[in-house]
Design a protein that fits this description.
By secondary structure, this protein is an all-alpha fold. It has a single domain, classed as Four Helix Bundle (Hemerythrin (Met), subunit A) (Up-down Bundle). The chain has helices spanning about 1-15, 15-45, 55-80, 85-115, 125-155, 160-194. Helix 3 runs antiparallel to helix 4 and helix 5 (about 125-155) runs antiparallel to helix 6. It is elongated and about 60 Å long.
Length: about 190
Amino acid sequence: MKVAVADNVYRNNKIHPQKFAMLLGCASMTMMFMGFTSAFIVRQAGGNWLEFLLPNMFFYSTGAIVLSSITIHIAYRAFKKGITSVYRSFLVLSFLLGLAFVVMQYFAWQEMGEMGVFMDTNPSGSFVYVISGVHAAHVLGGIGVLTVALVHAFALKHKVTEKRKLRFELSLIYWHFVDVLWLYILLFFILQQS
């Protein structure tokens, strides 16, 4: 009886409850990062602010995460169409690009250190480390999700079921979210330098 009620509610709302929960989670993470960037602006106006150029590696990592968003979408479409080789290949590629993003973030932090910008040097550097670091942690969470998706892709027979489709869509929503979130963060950093 409870399942029938849940199915009826889902049909009436037109959005699956798990998707709704994912979107709520994304909204709360958006609010957190908006809080970080608001605090950045307020503290910057307080003076004693070190100006420095963003590391080039931030821009390279942006290419990796944008490309990974494209490849995971290709994997999803291939999954739905039953094209197993494309689905698996592009899912692996998305995973590797996600890892590349995190590694490039680490190199960007090293680049900041070489410029003399450390976590405790000036609030400006601290904000960049914290905001980019918290975002990288969210990407690592997404990489964990992609790891599970890879296990399913290679261990299970390729079969498009509602459950597997939903699971892939949740992964897709989250991955696109961390991609767009990084673009917002990078654009914010660029605008604060001008």
